[in-house]
């Protein structure tokens, strides 16, 4: 390892990449977030040929248990290290279950001058053919590459580079579980070759602040003959926003639409997303019942739309009662 190599900081949060199992033959039965980041780094000797690594254990959690407090802590560490004069990039190890939400949060809040790259694994570190070591090596390669600057927050898995805004988990267990279903990957990594084939969108608007107080924003789904109990209960509980995992092109069952219209009338921001996993939810050319007072999430899936709604309402609560303003926010990011 030489001083001429870039300094890359690895921030660890746990997840399957830091998981372990009793048997190397097991890739489904294991305990996440047990292996410290120092061991993850030591397990990949090739890192010493790519960068000078400094590792920090920010948390050690299964990402299904991700919290707003941990998001805020992670954002603070990203801001701290990205401001360091000799840090060329930041890599974040994370669990796959909520990686796309954390990536979206960082995309919306961090204007880091250096690359910020999230990576993960679908198999625990003790598994046969564990994918974590190569994903970590590739993430460091991307973070240390000058071409990654100005690309926003990135996600690197399975030799592909994704924009944080676009990346989504599309399979329960496959090594190639992540993709960008709308726009496709930004590029790829093959050994030392890091190549970008397109530029991400949504970077022109100013980043949103990390909330000190988080509004209540939840997700409900539309399906055959839904009830209104959840919407009514959320409205009564003081929810500030509801994202609808709607069918098709943002269509909502008439019964649920009525309850959501009542919620919107009570000051709850309602955002239409699609449960299909891909595609754009159209904004009606003319207001129609329900859809006219609801906001379109565009091509954001329900979980990503919730992150944006959380941050938008925390930054400016008045958007929740002004669908036109809130639609402009969603269109900007």
From TrEMBL:
SMART domains in UniProt: Asparaginase
Tree of life domain: Bacteria
Active site: 16, 96
Span of domain Asparaginase/glutaminase C-terminal: 217-316
Keyword Hydrolase: yes
Keywords: Hydrolase
All residue ranges annotated as the L-asparaginase N-terminal domain in the record: 7-200
Residues reported in the UniProt entry to bind substrate: 63, 96-97
GO biological process: asparagine metabolic process
InterPro entries xref list: AsnASE_II, Asp/glu_Ase-like_sf, Asparaginase/glutaminase-like, Asparaginase/glutaminase_AS1, Asparaginase/glutaminase_AS2, Asparaginase_C, L-asparaginase_C, L-asparaginase_N
Record-level Gene Ontology MF annotations: asparaginase activity
Cited PROSITE patterns: ASN_GLN_ASE_1, ASN_GLN_ASE_2, ASN_GLN_ASE_3
Assigned protein family: Belongs to the asparaginase 1 family.
PANTHER family reported in the protein's UniProt record: 60 KDA LYSOPHOSPHOLIPASE (PTHR11707:SF28), L-ASPARAGINASE (PTHR11707)
Name of the protein: L-asparaginase
Organism of provenance: Cupriavidus agavae
């Amino acid at each position: 390892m030489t001083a001429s190599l870039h300094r890359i900081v690895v921030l660890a949060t746990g997840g399957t990449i830091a998981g372990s199992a009793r048997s190397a033959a097991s890739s489904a039965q294991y305990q996440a977030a047990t292996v410290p980041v120092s061991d993850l780094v030591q397990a990949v000797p090739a890192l010493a040929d790519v960068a000078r690594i400094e590792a920090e254990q920010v948390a050690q959690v299964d990402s299904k248990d991700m919290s707003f407090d941990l998001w805020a802590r992670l954002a603070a560490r990203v801001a701290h290290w990205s401001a360091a004069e000799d840090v060329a990039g930041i890599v974040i190890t994370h669990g796959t279950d909520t990686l796309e939400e954390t990536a979206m949060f960082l995309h919306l809040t961090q204007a880091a001058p250096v690359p910020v790259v999230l990576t993960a694994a679908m198999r625990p570190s003790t598994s046969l053919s564990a994918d974590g070591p190569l994903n970590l090596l590739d993430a460091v390669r991307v973070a240390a590459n000058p071409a990654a600057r100005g690309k926003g927050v990135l996600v690197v898995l399975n030799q592909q580079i994704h924009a944080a805004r676009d990346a989504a988990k599309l399979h329960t267990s496959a090594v190639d579980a992540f993709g960008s279903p709308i726009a496709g990957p930004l590029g790829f990594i093959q050994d030392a070759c890091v190549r970008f084939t397109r530029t991400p969108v949504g970077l022109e608007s100013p980043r949103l602040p990390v909330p000190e107080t988080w509004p209540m924003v939840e997700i409900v789904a539309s399906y055959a003959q839904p009830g209104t109990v959840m919407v009514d209960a959320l409205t009564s509980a003081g929810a500030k926003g509801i994202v609808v995992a709607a069918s098709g092109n943002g269509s909502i069952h008439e019964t649920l639409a009525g309850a959501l219209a009542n919620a919107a009338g009570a000051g709850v921001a309602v955002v239409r997303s699609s449960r299909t996993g891909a595609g754009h939810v159209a904004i009606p050319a003319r207001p129609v019942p329900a859809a006219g007072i609801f906001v379109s999430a565009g091509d954001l899936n329900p979980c990503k739309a919730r992150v944006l709604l959380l941050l938008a309402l925390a930054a400016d609560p008045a958007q929740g009662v002004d669908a036109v303003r809130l639609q402009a926010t969603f269109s900007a990011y």
